[in-house]
Model the fold of this input.
Amino acid sequence: MTGVAMDTSGLPVFLHDGAFYQLATLDDLAEAGLRVRPVHVRDLVLGEDTLEGADRLFVADRLHPGLWTRAAESCVDVARRGGTVFVSGENALDAVPGVELTRTGTNFWWWRTGEDPGIDVLETGEELQRHLVPRAQRWHFHGVMEVPDHTEVLAHHRETGPEWPAGALLAVDRASTAGVIAVTTMDPVYHHGSRFMPGASLLLHGVMRWLCGAEPRPGEKLAHGSR
Amino acid sequence: MITLLTAGPPAFTAEGVEPLDVYDIDALEPACRLLLIGMHADQVFLESRREVLDAFLARGGTLVIGGHLLRQVFTGAPRWRRAESTAQADLVVLGVHAHPVWEGVDPRDLSSRRGVSGFYGRGGYPDLPEGATIINRIQYMPVDVELRTGGGRVLLHGGNDLWTYRSEGNTAERLLPQLLRWGTEGWT
Done:
């Protein structure tokens, strides 16, 4: 970076692995004025970057599985220290306390055919949900989760066949650690950064505003930049 | 030798295709002449190892890259741009120049999947070097292009990887076998 060095130490961390959709999303967040500190998961694993001092962390979906496996505990540690962590979909969830992930098929066509995808958005008092219209929480998913009883489930899937068991799709756990762990089986960074799917851009915008401490603007999408 | 650069479990397996983790690219075999890079690959890392891909092209290799190229992973790499409209009705694949990889593939089989458009591409590479061949476009954006650069060949597909169409149940299934055949033609 050229020009005046900015202190980024107090910003939410955006953990990524250099895939194009993550890079595009980082550009869009900057354009939207949602400031984050990008941390490359490989740098974290190699000890060239750190989450020390981070109190808010967004883990992008679809991280390189070999790197994510080695980084996951240190990410959950942010919540154990009292911070807030959001883990996005298509990542293994072995390190997340009390969560069991079952991967599923993906019904991406229901909105064209008019069929019921089995997704229910549950109205809760959870602060994250003040940032999200129902459409942000109801598009598609890649898995379902069993979560601890004390967890607030924001979006849930009803069983719709053997390939599609019931389980949580978006949940916030404020009890398992000293902080907050939110987790989803949706993959908004991939779809937003691929210039795909309005629901993904709505979810991403809401989650990032929540993490950035910005006032809720539910229904506003993260805008697509020129690339 | 054909190498599939991976970012996790290999997206597909085929005879003669060797998977190699993206972070092991320094170990790319000199015998590799066709290198496939999927859309999930770390472009920040690949850009930091640009000399590996440049050397591969200088040896006369064929490089295939899916996804949206946003970093200079090889010298002179063009940059992907979003199409003017990403509305469903506007994401129709239009053929420009015939190419062996797309022989017998009906563009309609690429344009939508179960009625949903956009998987194949939502933009492309508007700024191309001299001599580039535009194969398909979406609106005015070249989504499939072939370049001759640095002594080798580069095939760019600016959308979901071509090999994700291998079990499509229509003519799009021809892409992967034709890609492997085209990429290895004339090999002894």
Q: What stands out?
A: The longest helix of chain B spans residues 175-184. Chain B touches chain A at residues 7-9, 21-23, 39-46, 67-71, 79-82, 86, 113-116, 118, 122-123 (CB under 8 Å).
